[in-house]
Amino acid sequence: MTTPPTRRTGSARRRSRPLAALLPAVLLTAALTVPAAGAPAPAPTPASAETCAPLAPGASALAEGAVAAACQEVAAGTWYTWGGGHGPRPGPTYGQVDPDDPASAHDPERLGFDCSGLVRHAYARAAGADILDGAAAVQHYTHRTATRFTAADGLAPLLPGDLLAWGTSARLHHIAVYLGKGRMVEARQSGTRIMVSDVRLGGDYFGAVRITTGPVDGRLFRTWGSGVWTKARPALAAARVYAFPGPTTVRVACQTHAEPVTAEGYTNDAWSYLPDYRAWVTNIYLQGPAWLPDVPACP
């Protein structure tokens, strides 16, 4: 096994799937051409650009810029394509075949985005930097969060540009950009184009986050390894919350001495609280010394 950067790694497993795809501006006339024999029927004509815009006041310039970038893809008739938008840089890419979705058979032929690819592209255009790389869960749990909302909060406190997520704490599978007034822009599924939809609050709607590029409250550290689980309490037997699919930048609020953990030949009783995940992780899985520098002890 590879020697850790400063020590340690995790061992649990988790499959990470990209979730949303997007295509650079294409002409609506091209979107309406007759498909070749054997190709699926074209999706309905995209909604007009006028239906996709911030529908409420109060959003930041960053959020409004992200809405504008996502809405450009609605106006362009950009396809959803599974895995699209996850290239080395933000922007549309050709998709992949999702083994669980027969409708994705033509995704490798379509330049576009999946759900998280669209979010990545939209905020990169607005911020001028690739601030939300990764799949839906990584984007929802980003350390660049200004405010978090649970499903119980509903839509009342949300502003245009907030990111809506669906799934569970262990696996978030979809993410979209809120417009206001119960509407959102999303890359939903194979065989459809980037669209404006009603927010689906039922089922497994998980909550929302508001993105900021301002100062981060807390210290940032990097996990390493793959499948590193966070826990509901600083204990090995505690409920699992979320597993990092790979090295991830996390915000640490505080740390405490709790149950000792032994992994990769190291033993440590220090655990860190990650406010974005509302969960704990043993310091063995964080790059740095056993007791993290400049991080306060938890009350």
From TrEMBL:
Pfam families (alphabetical): NLPC_P60
InterPro entries per record: NLP_P60_dom (IPR000064), Papain-like_cys_pep_sf (IPR038765), PG_Endopeptidase_C40 (IPR051794)
Coiled-coil boundaries: none
GO molecular function: cysteine-type peptidase activity
UniProt-listed Gene3D superfamilies: endopeptidase domain like (from Nostoc punctiforme)
Range of residues in the leader sequence: 1-36
Gene Ontology terms: biological process: proteolysis
Statement: the UniProt record of this protein carries the keyword Plastid: no
Keywords: Hydrolase, Protease, Signal, Thiol protease
Location of region: Disordered: 87-106
SUPFAM superfamilies: Cysteine proteinases
Domain NlpC/P60: 60-217
Protein family (similarity comment): Belongs to the peptidase C40 family.
Protein's recorded name: NlpC/P60 domain-containing protein
Phylogenetic lineage: Bacteria, Bacillati, Actinomycetota, Actinomycetes, Kitasatosporales
